[in-house]
Amino acid sequence: MSTIFTQIVEGEIPARIVYEDETTMAFLDANPLAPGHTLVIPKDEYERLNDVPDDVASDLYETIHRLVPAVEDSVDADATTVAFNNGETAGQEVPHVHCHIVPRFEGDGGGPIHAVAGDRPDLADDELDDIAADIESRA
Ligand code: AMP
């Protein structure tokens, strides 16, 4: 069963497509958080960012880089929040990688990306050192 975004890529369901190339596509979010809320996807189905091959990841970033100023200019936004819900626990509902470009406006009542997390952990220096070393060893 293909994802709803694959169905958009295949032209099986309608979408307001704003950009398309060989490997990526961008279209307006059907339930926008702000005017101009746009989703950027790889055309092929990958559930999470870590599943995306290097070359497609580069293409995806290139499209995001192209679309951010296009979206900001088109709705005269002051800024954008650009983010992925990467995995169900992080709020990902559609299991097909997608980048949200959400236009932001002075006084829009929204918050920074820091607002998405729950309680902040109280980490000691040695715990931070261990985490940093562990991430570095896997990067
Ligand atoms: P996420 O929670 O990160 O998986 O976000 C999925 C997003 O896809 C939501 O913002 C939905 O509004 C959006 N969405 C779901 N179905 C469609 C659709 N057919 N066309 C455009 N956007 C959609």
TrEMBL record:
Region Disordered: which residues? 118-139
Residue span, HIT domain: 4-111
| Entry-linked PANTHER family | ADENOSINE 5'-MONOPHOSPHORAMIDASE HNT1 (PTHR46648:SF1), HIT FAMILY PROTEIN 1 (PTHR46648)
| Compositional bias annotation for Acidic residues | 124-133
- What name goes with this protein? HIT family protein
- Return one Gene Ontology term, BP aspect: nucleotide metabolic process
Motif Histidine triad motif: list the residue ranges: 96-100
Q: Which organism is it from?
A: Natrinema halophilum
Q: Which Gene3D superfamilies match?
A: HIT-like
In its UniProt record, a GO molecular function of this protein is: catalytic activity
Catalytic site residues?
A: H98 (tele-amp-histidine intermediate)
Query: Which Pfam family, giving just one, matches this sequence?
Result: HIT
Domain of life the protein comes from = Archaea
